[in-house]
Design brief:
The complex is a heterodimer of chains A (100) and B (129). Chain A is an alpha/beta fold. Chain A has four helices and five strands. Chain A has one domain: DsrEFH-like (Hypothetical Protein Ychn, Chain: A), CATH 3.40.1260. The longest helix of chain A is centred in the last third of the chain and has 10 residues. With 129 residues, chain B is an alpha/beta fold. Helix content of chain B is 26%, strand content 19%. Chain B is built from four helices and five strands; from the N terminus they run βαβαβαβαβ. The chains are: A alpha/beta (100), B alpha/beta (129). Chains A and B meet through helix 3 of A and loops of B.
Amino acid sequence: MLHTVNKSPFEKNSLDSCLRLAKKGSSILLIEDGVYAAMKGTAVMEKVSAAMQDKKVYALGPDLKARGLDESQVIDGIGVVDYGGFVDLAAASDKVQSWL
Amino acid sequence: MTDEMTEEGGTVKRFLYVNRRAPYGSIYALESLEVVLIGAAFEQDVSMVFIDDGVYELKKGQDTKAIDMKNFSPTYRALEMYDVEKLYADKESMDARGLTEDDLVVPVEVLSTEELANLMEEQDVVLSF
């Protein structure tokens, strides 16, 4: 199953709910303001890293770029994908939950 | 104490614009900029403060081509030309996001929680975004 998160982890609890309910083996794609959670050195880095133990986390490249977030500062192990990669993730998943 | 006057003889008030939203996920950040520029045209005493996700508005290196939205971050550097020179950022918000002054497109005065609370208290008008 694919989970998308489009809200800043500092403003809404969308990421927290996603991390609480996403099962082992699922994919989490950070989009729009959700990409702020993908960065190193923030107060939420620890919980994102913890989730990566048994889930795959991705971030949408165009949204990182728009916000001035450097790909080299993304947490190690997070996959940066483009719009085509977003489509591939959705197509590879039987369903999508959007944490709005 | 006599209030400062504008050229037209109006009273100058202290306006503080409080920015708490990230730039592209909602329209707040852009709308705030528009209102700030209008306020400056009326020769008011304008300050802007960036708190919570508002500090992301000032992040260097924004490039919105791929999301097909207007990159308005260069506008913060133009504020000086409109006599909007008092820009402040909340240290606690920057720390939580791993940001330092070097990450920002404009020089700001970084304030502690207490300094920020005092700044808000000193204003005549506070506008929230």
